[in-house]
Amino acid sequence: MSTTSPQPSPPFHGGEEENTPSNLPDRPVERLFPFVMKTRGLLVGRDTLRANKSKLHFVLIASDIAEASREEVLKDFSHYPVVQHFTAADLEKFFHVKGAKAVGFAKSGLAQSIYAELKAFRLNKPANVPTPPGPAKQPSAPVMPSESP
Asked: Which of 18, 32, 73, 104 fits a disulfide with 43 by CB distance 3.0 to 4.6 angstroms?
């Protein structure tokens, strides 16, 4: 039996709180990038991204991408989260891809974790998908007392 008292758990930061630069996690998201390379979960270049939309979780574009290219990515991937962060040199350093200004992350738990930490830098808003109306409630007929013989 241990005589040490249990350590208090770290405070929970739920999904409702938005990540802003003031409340980003202490650990940098870059710590997860080597695992993306190991799992082959990185899609490099706009043409590759277009060809693999069914596998795509989100798109990361460089902060130094040309404005016309940025608009093209936003238009082509309007149904996917598009995040703008890091420079092309950073992407080269992290992912060993020369000159890439747009990379995508294949659907996975790892991609979800990375996106959660980069969510504050998302450019496009999620599409408002209207919820279908529920079944119409039929007014209940008044209950008539039955006559007993």
From this structure: 104
> What CATH number does the domain containing 102 carry?
3.30.1330.30
Position 132 confidence tier, pLDDT thresholds 50, 70, 90 = low
Please say whether the dihedral angle defined by the alpha carbons of residues 108, 93, 60 and 45, taken in this order, is positive or negative: negative
User: Which pLDDT score is estimated for 137?
Assistant: 60
The structural domain count of the chain equals: 1
Pairing mode of beta strands 56-61, 82-84 = parallel
| Rounded Cα distance, 106 and 58, in Å | 8
Residue 73 lies in a domain: yes
Q: Answer yes or no: is 65 within a domain.
A: yes
3-state secondary structure of 60: strand
Distance CA 55, CA 49 (A): 9
Q: Left (φ > 0), alpha (ψ -120 to 50) or beta: where does 124 sit?
A: beta
pLDDT for the residue 130: 61
